[in-house]
Write a structure and sequence with these properties.
Blueprint: E1 7-9, H1 14-24, E2 28-31, H2 37-42, E3 50-53, E4 63-66, E5 69-73, H3 78-83, H4 85-90, H5 92-97, H6 104-109, H7 112-118, H8 124-132, E6 135-140, E7 143-148, H9 149-152, E8 153-155, E9 158-159, E10 166-173, E11 179-186, E12 196-204, E13 210-218, E14 225-226, H10 228-232, H11 241-254, H12 265-288
Parallel strand pairs: 1-3, 2-3
Antiparallel strand pairs: 4-5, 5-10, 6-7, 6-10, 8-9, 11-12, 12-13, 13-14
Helix pairs in contact: 11-12
Length: 292
């Protein structure tokens, strides 16, 4: 298959790119790593009149620490995030999830922001950003705005970004002291999109009492699912096997995933509960310093 005809535009600055999006609006598509967009073009599922290539813009691929946060530029390659010492030391949940994204060849080209902007409900990064309470930064010629994962992801392959806006960076809080995290998923083969995936974080005080817990799931809804009510059941006491079992039960009961040719709704609900229990148990061990 070949893509339909389009004008190929290559801005060399962020301001130029935003001006082009402001000019062309819904008739333009943005090219970052191309791992999702190029197949859509080839199958003619999208037909932009203009393709705006971001690969010549400098500065959108930075990974840096800034005032208690990690800032990841939208054009940072997934492989660069995966191998970053800064990410490994200050955001281990993200470091653990990165190798699950496709294959290394895909991660060499795929971008951090591109995966989020594509908003596939089975992708790993949206759930990780949701679990961490990250902020997604959008910019247009009018200025910037910051959105939480709940605000940014609005439906299947749909985000709150306007046609004139560009996702420019993501801000993630640095993992606090005595916090453990874990990412687990089930897929038919390594590199496939997850049938179900779970990202968890768990913070303990000096007495071993859970003070904060987050559970976010992928593959079980049109957007990443942040199981706030279920995770709240763990807060205020030690993360005992019984308490973790209860969180997994609540997660499973609270989901209404669709059935498709890959898995039934009941299978996804059951697997979500099992993965939640396993991920929280691993996160609790890591919070206590019992494992890595």
């Amino acid at each position: 298959m070949k893509p339909p005809r389009f004008d190929y535009l290559v801005p060399t600055s962020l301001d130029e790119a935003l001006a082009l999006l402001g000019q062309h609006g819904e008739e333009a598509k943005v090219l970052a790593g191309g791992q999702s967009l190029v197949p859509l073009l080839n199958f003619r599922l999208v037909r932009p009149a203009h393709l705006v290539d971001l690969n010549e813009i400098r500065g959108l691929d930075q990974i840096r620490a800034d005032d208690g946060h990690l800032v990841i530029g939208a054009m940072a390659r997934q492989r660069a995030v995966e191998t970053s010492t800064l990410i490994r030391e200050r955001c281990p949940l993200l470091a653990e999830a990165m190798p699950q994204i496709g294959h290394v060849q895909i991660r060499n080209r795929g971008t951090f922001g591109g995966s989020l902007a594509h908003a596939d409900p089975a992708a790993e990064l949206p759930a990780v950003v949701a679990a961490l309470g990250g902020e997604i930064v959008l910019q247009s010629a009018r200025g910037r705005r910051r959105l939480s994962a709940d605000q940014f992801f609005v439906g299947y392959l749909t985000t709150a970004a306007e046609p004139t806006e560009l996702l420019v960076e993501v801000k993630l809080p640095v993992t606090p002291r005595r916090t453990g995290s874990a990412f687990l998923e089930v897929s038919r083969r390594h590199g496939d999109f997850a049938l179900v995936g779970v990202a968890t974080t768990l913070t303990l005080d000096d007495r071993g009492v859970c003070t904060a817990c987050s559970v976010a799931l992928t593959g079980v809804g049109p957007t990443p699912v942040l199981a706030r009510d279920a995770a709240r059941a763990l807060v205020g006491g030690p993360p005992s096997p019984q308490a973790i079992e209860e969180v997994g039960r609540r997660v499973s009961q609270g989901l209404r995933p669709d059935s498709d040719l890959h898995a039934s709704s009941e299978y996804r609900k059951d697997v979500a509960g099992v993965l939640t229990r396993r991920a929280l148990a691993r996160a609790a061990e890591r919070a206590r310093g019992e494992s890595r």
